[in-house]
Design brief:
Helices cover 15% and strands 28% of the residues. The chain is built from two helices and 19 strands.
Length: 179
Amino acid sequence: MTFRSIAGAVLAFGYNNVVGRLPSRLLRRLYLKLYLRRIGYNTNAQMGCRFLNGRRVSLGTGNVINFGCLLDGRRYDIRFGDNVSIGPEATILTLGHDPQSAEFADRGGDVVVGDRVWIGYRALVMPGVTIGEGAIVAAGAVVTKDVAPYTIVAGVPAKPIGERNRDLRYELNYHPWLI
C-alpha cells in the first residue's frame, strides 16, 4: 500500500464513521472541504452520508445530499452540477465488476450529474452514467444508461416515463437542524 492509499482510507474512515455521524453541519462541511475535490457554496451533506475516495467527488453549489447516501469515487470521478437534490439512501457507483470476465475484472466509469437534477429515495446510479440537466430519477430506480436532459425516468432498469418542465429557476437552500 502507498502512503496516499493509506491516507485516503483514514480520511474516508474518519468521515464515514465519526464526522459524518455528528449532528453538526458546520463540522461535516469543514471536513468535506478538506476531503472532497470540491464542495460548492451552500451545499449540504446530511448525517450518515458515506464517501468512498472523496478526492474524486465534486459537488456543485446548492446541492442537497440527504441522509444515508453513498457516493463511490473509488477509481472514477463523480461530478455534480448546481442545485442537485439527492434523496435519502441513494447510491452513486463508479466501479463494479465485468460479469463476463473470467478474472472478475473491474469495470466502471465517471458519473456526471447535471444542474437541477433530482434523484429520488433509494435510487441507484450505475458506473459510467450521465444524467442530463433537469432530469428526475424516481425513487428506487436503477439507472444503467444515460438520461437525457429534462427526462423523468423510473423502474428497474430505469426507462423514460415523462418530461420535466424546462423553465427551472429554483436554487436549493435546505439546511435542516440536527440532520
